[in-house]
Amino acid sequence: MVDVLFEQNLPQQLSESLDCGLYMVTHAEYLSYGHEVLLNEFDPNALRTRYAALLWDYETRKQEANAHCDIEAPLRLAKQSRITSVTKVFDV
């Protein structure tokens, strides 16, 4: 049997928003590193920029390696990340 814990005061998307992917991916990343998702540190715009930069970097590395599919793409070691309220975000 599995114990289920219900957390209160977690960041939630606005009710009219259909963008649940950002919240799902961020929660999964935080949980996989053993971090607590903090409401005051959850900045959807910064996270969107971060994930866009990660995807751009991954595609760039694929092109540099002349990879034709994701299986051939060079991987990086996983790094712990933590987006906080003091993280600087730059428009690209």
From TrEMBL:
UniProt KW Protease keyword: yes
Listed GO biological process terms: proteolysis
Domain of life according to the entry: Eukaryota
Pfam family, one: Peptidase_C48
UniProt keyword annotations, A-Z: Hydrolase, Protease
Domain called Ubiquitin-like protease family profile: residue spans: 6-54
UniProt xrefs under SUPFAM superfamilies: Cysteine proteinases
InterPro entries the record matches: Papain-like_cys_pep_sf, Peptidase_C48_C
Gene3D superfamilies: Adenoviral Proteinase, Chain A
Gene Ontology MF terms: cysteine-type peptidase activity
Family of this protein: Belongs to the peptidase C48 family.
Protein known as: Ubiquitin-like protease family profile domain-containing protein
Organism: Capsicum annuum (Capsicum pepper)
